[in-house]
Amino acid sequence: MDLRGGSRPSSTPRGSARRRRPLVRVEDHRAPQWPDSAVPRRFHPDFAVGDLHAAEARLLEPGAGEPDHQPGHDRWRVRTDPAGHPFCLVRD
Question: Which regions are flagged for Basic and acidic residues bias (predicted)?
Fold first, then answer.
């Protein structure tokens, strides 16, 4: 996901060919709770961003979660998607 600006974010990881990633609803889904590992995290992407604070603002506005536990301090931030899955914003 390119969080540096532009009108449309992309979910294509840097250096990879474009691929579709289908999403499905899972009955009885239990969202993981960062950093608790009682419910396993299935996928934890890191997104390189040029401006950490601007990328955070762009994601928090539509509803990204902001866990209390932040081990990366000013180098990276842990956020969660609406289903509770963690991902990181990493300073590029």
Answer: 66-82
